[in-house]
Structures are given as structure tokens and as C-alpha cells.
Amino acid sequence: MVQASSVEVRNVDKFYGPFQALKNVSLSIPAGKVTCLIGPSGSGKSTLLRCMNFLEEYDRGEIRIDGKLIGYDAPGRKMSARNLRQMRRSIGMVFQQFNLWPHMTAQENVAEGLVRVRGMSKPEAMARAATELGKVGLADKLGNYPSRLSGGQQQRVAIARAVAMEPKLMLFDEPTSALDPELVGEVLNVMKALAAAGMTMVVVTHEMGFAAHVADQVAFLEKGELVAVDSPAGIFHAPKDERIWNFLRTYNERNSF
Amino acid sequence: MELSIFAHYWPMLLKGFGMTVLCWILGTGFGMALGLIIALIQRYSIAPVRWLVQVYVEIIRGTPFLVQLFLLYYGGPMVGIRLDPLPAGIVGLTIYGSPYFAEIFRSAFRAVPTGQIEAARAIGMSEPTIVQRILLPVGLVSALPALVNFSIILTKETVILSIITVPELLYQTQRMSTETFRYLEANLVLALFFWVFVEIISRIGRRFERRITHYLIERP
């Protein structure tokens, strides 16, 4: 089992100029559980996720990781870059576009953070990277550059890169949206294994199957509002809000034959 | 064509060529370094410093190299800057090239996908480390063709240094032609030297480019 964080989002507002991307969002993410964020595009789910490691700066409210406020020392007073880095070390993130560093091999991508952030020696980091890549089924791709890996393989390297840092919380920003359909499964399997190991995971996804089968809770957002948080069964089989029902209907229409 | 004059002048021509190469290497090297610093300031510094740097970029880009060189060499002593021809020439080339190099670096940095920077931030990497490990190596790849190109342009700007009596190649060939009245030979040999020089630089540039972009080739 891994050490896992909890996240507490309280009354968060986020503005892009006059446009309000998040409207008074509150959400509890329990430790060791999988929370999926779903909703139509532009609903603010990615923004909310990115606020959790302060890649996106929220304007009001608070987000606490294990009780510790991220991004701010006090309301309106930003935290020092050093303290923010310290907090980010235990938050892993996986992006839609993988964002591997193209000039490093798979192994170097994973080892980089261990050396530069955790201060590990190069040989130790490389050995560790090999182990982590083995866990995601890429033991034979250590020396490959990202350009020579498939999308699914790249995303698994990206997951290994985040996991190698021993995070207590993992954020996934549409991790399978840029993948060819036949490659989605391999990435979801790695994520399922991570969930089974007890990692706290927040996953923005359009994979309703994953949300339904792996998530402990599902949050539905629309137009910057958190409409509902419920068990997958509650969201998918007995949606209490018309907006959820509409969203799922569109989703089902698009995915039926 | 009177080739026999070269029997007498070749040591002088070689010395001139050596001086041209020296001015080019130092002027380009320092200019590139200054350009890189400017680009980093433009990316990371606070607004007032950025504006100041932008004013420098606009002024240098907006004025001819010859005028800058005159200001430095003949105007400099009036404000206490007294430089010999060679240092003045190198400083001049450095200043003249820096804003162009800065622009090349600036656009190259912008071409580095934001996601790659965010991925580094997300694992807690510090900004200086990000510059060193991600921004520079990834950015350099897209900057290289433009860097080589502008460095080649600078080879030919070195001839202007002859006006402030730096004994580079044009200075020497002019001396040769005024002493022998063989203008055709003198200028042909001048052109030949530059052509060979540029050819060598562009070959080195291409080889270097292949070496640092090896990871972009999709299949081994």
C-alpha cells in the first residue's frame, strides 16, 4: 500500500479575465480513493484538477492537501516557490499530451526528477527508473526516445515518471483522450493497478467505463459548477440532476452503434 | 590575372583571414551569449527590466552596424570608453548581433511546448533547473538553423571592422590592391576566402544539427 493524501476543495473560484471557470466549487477527495471528474468540455474539470497542484492559480477559496493549503500561505498571499515545489513533490500529474521530454530516453525521463528534485545519484535513479518502467510493462523500452514509442507507451512512461517520485496523490488530466482506441486499455490497466495499490487518484476522464468500474466517487461539473458528487452507480444509473442525464444521453448516443 | 602577386602577399592575406576568423568567433560567441541572457531576461524578469531590455533590442536593431561602430570607436572616447580597434570591433559585433540572437532564442523558447515545462514544474523542479534541463536543450534544437544562419550573416559583417583599422581580410586585400593596383585579383581572393569560410561553417552547423536532433527521428 502507498501512503495516500486526502484533498479538500472548499469554495474555489477561478477567473480567466471576466470569464469564471470555477464557481464556488467544494469537493472532498478521501485518501486512497479514486475520484473521477466528468462533464462536458469547458465544464472546468481540467481547471479544477490543475488547481490541485497549483499549475492553475485559483482566485478564491482553498484547496488543502492533507490539511495543508496549496499555493497560498494565507488567503491572497502566495506561497513561496520553494514551498510550492516541496508540496508538488508529493503530487504526481499525468497529462493528456503525455509531455515527455523529447530529448531524453524513457529511462532518463523517469530518472530526471529523481536526480534533479530528490537528489538521488544518477546510477541509483536510472536503476529505479528501470524498475518503475518494468512495472508499467516497458522493461524493453528503457533506451527508447519518446518519438519511438506509441502513444500508449508514452503515457505509461509518463505515469512511471510521476509514480517514481513516490507521490501520495496522482492527478490525471484526460490521460487517454489523445490515444488511439486500441491503446486506451493498456493505460487504463496501469491506472487500475495504481488504484488497487491504494493511491489517491483524481481523474478527469471521458472514459465512462473507467469511471463506472474503478471510481469510488464521481463528480459531475458543468459550466464551472460542481453539479453533483455521488457513487458511480448514483451518477450513472440514478442521476438526480437533469444536466447529468443530458450529458450521459449525448455520450450514449455518440457511443452506440 | 596576375597570380604572381600572391607569392608576395599570401602571408598577409592569411593573417588577415585569421583576424577575420578571430573577430567572427569572439563577436558571434559573445553576441550569442548576450542574446541568450537577453532572451532569458525577457522570459523571466519583472516588467520594468523587460522594457529596458526591449528598448535596447529596438535601438540596436534599428541602427546600422557602421553607425554603432563609429559611435563606439570615435564617440566612445568622449564618454571615457577608449578601446583599441580590435576590442572595439569585437565589442561592436557582440552588441550588433545580440538582439538578433535574442529574438532567435526568444522564439525558440516559445516553441517549447508548455506541457513539457508544466511536467517539470509538476514534479517540483525549480525554474533554473527547468531552463537548464528542458528549455535550453529542447529550445536549442529549433533555434539551431536560425543561429547558424545569422552567424553566417555575421561573417560578412566583419569586413566593416576594416573601417576602424582592424587588420582583417578586407583591410589586407585593400592594402594589397592599393599597392599593386590588382583590384580584380584582390577582391576575387577576398570573395573566395569568405565563400570557403561560410561553406565550412554551414557544414559544421548541419553536422551539429544532425547530432542534436537524433532523438527526433522516428525509426532508428
Automatic annotation (TrEMBL), chain A:
Residues 7-248 form the ABC transporter domain. GO terms for cellular component: plasma membrane. It is a peripheral membrane protein. GO terms for molecular function: ABC-type amino acid transporter activity; ATP binding; ATP hydrolysis activity. Keywords: Amino-acid transport, ATP-binding, Cell membrane, Membrane, Nucleotide-binding, Transport. The keyword Metal-binding does not apply. InterPro entries: AAA+_ATPase, ABC_ATPase_HisP-typ, ABC_transporter-like_ATP-bd, ABC_transporter-like_CS, MetN_ABC_transporter-like, P-loop_NTPase. It is found in: Cell membrane. SMART domains: AAA (SM00382). Belongs to the ABC transporter superfamily. This is Amino acid ABC transporter ATP-binding protein, PAAT family (TC 3.A.1.3.-).
TrEMBL record, chain B:
It comes from Paracoccus sulfuroxidans. InterPro entries: AA_ABC_transptr_permease_3TM (IPR010065), ArtM/GltK/GlnP/TcyL/YhdX-like (IPR043429), MetI-like (IPR000515), MetI-like_sf (IPR035906). The chain crosses the membrane at residues 16-41, 53-74, 86-102, 134-154, 181-201. One of its GO terms (cellular component) is ATP-binding cassette (ABC) transporter complex. It comes from the Bacteria. GO terms for molecular function: L-cystine transmembrane transporter activity. The keyword Transport applies. This is Polar amino acid transport system permease protein. Keywords: Amino-acid transport, Cell membrane, Membrane, Transmembrane, Transmembrane helix, Transport. Its main location: membrane. It is found in: Cell inner membrane; Cell membrane. The keyword Membrane applies. Residues 17-202 form the ABC transmembrane type-1 domain. Belongs to the binding-protein-dependent transport system permease family. HisMQ subfamily. Pfam families: BPD_transp_1.
